[in-house]
Write a structure and sequence with these properties.
With 603 residues, this protein is mostly helical. The chain is built from 30 helices and 2 strands. Strand 1 (425-426) and strand 2 form a beta hairpin.
């Protein structure tokens, strides 16, 4: 991913989609819960030094069962003994290690992940055709025969492509060296090309009706890879898609979803993984990088069998809570997130995902002390984006009365001043949300005569993370947020004019417009949005407000059935503004809106 992909891929909530994709690459068919015995472990009944394809697939099914039952160490211990001899053991073992590295963000864990993935690639390489897959495909395609590749070699290509993709992800987070960035990009391209060639192989097998013992497993791997690649690439802004198409990539959302849906309905061990990838798209990506229009019906249907089989699986509970939150059942979501924390202690990183969600729930409810509690836990325990966590902690404290802040023994100005020193770089790039936090924090710089207090900073961050579509189903929450915004608006009107006055006033108008839009008061919302747009030339600092407000205005037009007017407004936001905060995130959202709104109404 490019630009704001770092915001989703490398910050806690946005990361979850990538976590599922990476977990998906290692997890396999869900088998019934039962005690493990010798039939589950081919290596326990054989002294053979080689694990065959059948045995590898069966053991990985057991490992998935353990993983989804919160038995993460047991899954690793099952896979590790054969990780250098079996391609599926290698893929499963290395993926769990990589997942752990991405979640902890500890340099030692990242190095362990890179080492494990390097070993996995070597293991898969041993089973690949000695010539390249491109040569193999061109050979048997021209002769109409699959004699050039064995079934085991075909599976090796799929496993190799999955490992390569994950190693690229770790290469990006290893350090900010541009050479690593280029290496990572090349690995992704190679992985993509292998998936495309495997798709060609799949078509030949289907056309010639060739029987293979594990054909459906190969088919599941192809559909997962092709589907996920197309879905993720389709999210990118149009200008980036055009560039990627020039170097051989393609991103077709409908094709991606279709491939994943077909994979999900099949009998392959990757079927649940296709489900989980779609689930991540519906419950996270569509919200953070989209318009907030989420297919909850499909998401619930996909999750139901997992919840039934793994009622205490932390990953299943997490998605259950997310769906309830997006349905507007905030209190129920809160309860499930707390259960998600209580069911396992082995991987504390899953707790951090829940802390993030619980923090936002309390922000939506304006329960500032509890929101502060979870932001403080994230600051103390999670390695992910310390700059964002500290900024959010300070922003939440800013919403409290002075006496409550004093009771916490925190110094708000000192917290804001810490933010810039905590900024990090990933794949040679600063994280957009961290850059945003750093810029906003400069109003508390010790070089200024006195701090210039931010206005509603917690609600501004709620807007940046697209929180307003989450609360739109709750009239009570939207009304309470509107009261808070109007109180800030009245306070601003009574303050002396300063360099920040226009910017603060426009921020308040944007937030007020979002609340009014949620409350189905379109004329008043449009007046607020128009005020921001008309103030464009008076803004001194927060230039992002105008293009983001144009986006909100477009959403408002669309809700009133004025599709052409909405699309024209999106084009204005996309083409007339550049070099503002969170630009890439807005371009992702514009791309998603254009894709959805240009569909025929019959769709």
């Amino acid at each position: 991913m490019l630009s704001d992909a770092s915001a989703t891929s490398f910050l806690m909530p946005g990361l979850l989609a990538q976590i599922w994709q990476q977990a998906a690459n290692s997890c396999h068919h869900v088998i019934p819960n039962r005690p493990l015995d010798s039939t589950d472990h081919p290596m326990l009944t054989s002294t053979s030094t080689k694990m065959d394809l059948k045995g590898g697939l069966e053991e990985c099914a057991v490992a998935l069962n353990l993983f989804l039952s919160n038995k993460f160490t047991d899954a690793l211990e099952l896979l590790q003994p054969w990780a250098k001899d079996s391609m599926y053991h290698a893929l499963g073992y290395s993926t769990i290690v990589v997942l752990q590295a991405i979640m902890t963000f500890e340099q030692q864990d990242i190095q362990n992940g890179i080492s494990a993935m390097k070993d996995a690639l070597q293991t898969c390489q041993k089973y690949r055709k000695k010539c390249t897959v491109v040569e193999s495909v061109s050979s048997f395609l021209s002769r109409g025969s699959l004699e050039q590749m064995t079934e085991e070699e075909m599976h090796a290509e799929i496993c190799y492509a999955e490992c390569l993709l994950q190693k690229a992800a770790l290469t990006f987070v290893q350090d900010e060296n541009m050479i690593n960035f280029i290496k990572g990009g090349m690995k992704i391209r190679t992985s993509y090309q292998i998936y495309k060639e495997c798709l060609s192989i799949l078509h030949v097998i289907q056309k010639n009706k060739i029987k293979q013992q594990f054909f459906y497993e190969f088919e599941g791997g192809v559909k997962l890879g092709i589907g996920a690649f197309n879905l993720m690439l389709s999210l990118l802004p149009a200008r980036i898609i055009r560039l990627l198409e020039f170097i051989g990539f393609s991103g077709n959302r409908e094709l991606g979803l279709l491939q994943l849906q077909e994979g999900a309905s099949g009998r392959s061990m990757r079927s649940p993984l296709c489900c989980l990838t779609i689930l991540a798209f519906h419950t996270y990506i569509s919200l953070i990088l989209g318009t907030g229009e989420v297919n909850l019906v499909e998401a619930e249907g996909l999750l139901a069998p997992f919840l039934q089989q793994f009622p205490n699986g932390s990953l299943m509970l997490f998605y259950h809570a997310r769906i309830e939150l997006l349905k507007g059942n905030v209190e129920k979501a809160q309860e499930i997130f707390r259960k998600c924390i209580s069911v396992q202690e082995e991987w504390k990183q899953f707790h951090h995902l829940c802390y993030w969600e619980l923090m936002w729930i309390h922000v939506f409810q304006q329960n500032w002390m509890k929101a502060y509690y979870y932001s403080d836990l994230l600051c103390k325990e999670s390695k992910w984006s310390k700059a964002t966590y500290v900024f959010l902690k300070a922003a939440i404290l800013s919403m409290l009365p002075e006496e409550d802040v004093t009771a916490t023994e925190e110094n708000v100005a000192a917290l804001f001043r810490q933010v810039e020193g905590l900024k990090q770089r990933i794949a040679g790039k600063s994280i957009p949300t961290e850059k945003f936090a750093v810029r906003k924090s400069r109003r508390y710089s010790s070089s200024l005569p006195a701090p210039v207090k931010l206005v509603l900073p917690a609600l501004e961050m709620m807007y940046i993370w697209n929180g307003f579509p989450v609360v739109c189903k709750r009239k009570d929450l939207s009304e309470n947020l509107l009261l808070t915004v109007e109180k800030a608006e009245a306070t601003l009107q009574n303050e002396n004019f300063s360099d920040y006055s226009v910017d603060d006033e426009c921020l308040v108008k944007l937030l007020k417009g979002c609340c009014l839009k949620n409350l189905q008061r379109p004329l008043q919302a449009e007046l607020c949005f128009s005020h921001v747009i008309q103030s464009e030339k008076l803004l001194k600092f927060d230039h992002y407000l105008v293009p983001f407000t144009l986006f909100e205005l477009a959403v408002l037009y669309k809700s009133q059935g004025e599709i052409d007017k909405a699309l024209k407004t999106l084009e204005t936001a996309r083409n007339n503004y550049k070099d503002y905060s969170m630009e890439s995130r807005l371009h992702f959202r514009i791309q998603a809106a254009v894709h959805l709104w240009r569909k025929p109404s019959s769709d």
